[in-house]
Write a structure and sequence with these properties.
two-stranded antiparallel ribbon; 12% helix
Length: 58
């Protein structure tokens, strides 16, 4: 069977401090997690370390 070189299916292992659960039961990723991921997804994340604010035009 050929080795999958696409990168699909590879997920970062979540570590302590990467997220917390909100009062509403949602998983909220922290700045620590976003920095480890290494890029901005431009979804307006609460703890975005890249300065992206949803709805702001640059």
């Amino acid at each position: 069977m050929a080795e999958d070189m696409s990168g699909f299916g590879k997920r970062n292992q979540l570590e302590e401090g990467d997220f917390y659960t909100s009062e509403d039961g949602y998983i909220v990723f922290t700045e620590q997690y976003h920095l480890k991921r290494g890029y901005c997804c431009k979804s307006g994340c609460k703890h975005c370390p890249y300065g992206f604010k949803k709805g702001r035009v640059e």
